[in-house]
Amino acid sequence: MTQRTLAIIKPDAVSKGAAGAILSKIEQAGFKVLAAKLIQMSFDDAAGFYAVHRPRPFFKSLCTFMTQGPCIPMVLEADNGIQKWRDLMGATDPAKAAAGTIRKEFASSVEANAVHGSDAPETAAFEIAYFFSALEIH
């Protein structure tokens, strides 16, 4: 089943100049990029996006991290796209990520982990709509 998912190339990867290499891996894995843009989130933008994590101790740090520079949210589409993207991203902790995954190659820590991805169809629907209007998705 074809699915859409939200992906974000996070500020750490953008600042390292890894966005092009990450996008190349995404395309080589068979994803269709339906939308993409370079944005700079405010703390409130990040807090709204990561609201599900508000009770967790890392919430403020995560929001601060996501506002330290530009990031690139994207809408990706592929067969079984949500799980396929999560597999390509790799484990949150780059030390535990499998060889060939984005986080193994480009992440430097659990927080500075290069990319974000939706974890379920309901999450993907919320996350895509958070960053993109229907007119921006092609």
What does this structure look like?
This protein is an alpha+beta fold and 138 residues long. It has a single domain (2-39, 71-136), classed as Alpha-Beta Plaits (2-Layer Sandwich), CATH 3.30.70.141. Helices cover 40% and strands 17% of the residues. The protein has helices at 11-15, 19-28, 43-49, 59-66, 81-89, 102-106, 121-131; strands at residues 2-9, 32-36, 72-79, 115-117. Strands 2-3-1-4 form a 4-stranded antiparallel sheet, with helices on both faces. Helix 3 packs across helix 4 (59-66). The longest helix has 11 residues, at 121-131. The model has no long low-confidence stretch (mean pLDDT 97).
Give me some keywords for this one.
alpha+beta, globular, Alpha-Beta Plaits, 138 residues, 17% strand, 40% helix
Quick one: overall form? Answer: globular
Number of domains: 1
Instruction: Tell me about the largest β-sheet.
Output: 4 strands, antiparallel
Please give the radius of gyration in angstroms.
14 Å
Order of helices and strands: EHHEHHEHHEH
CATH homologous superfamily assignment? Nucleoside diphosphate kinase-like domain
**Number of strand segments:** 4
CATH architecture: 2-Layer Sandwich
Average the pLDDT over all residues and give the rounded result. 97
Distance between the termini: 18 Å
Task: Tell me the CATH topology.
Answer: Alpha-Beta Plaits
Question: Strands, helices and their partners?
Answer:
Layout: E1 2-9, H1 11-15, H2 19-28, E2 32-36, H3 43-49, H4 59-66, E3 72-79, H5 81-89, H6 102-106, E4 115-117, H7 121-131
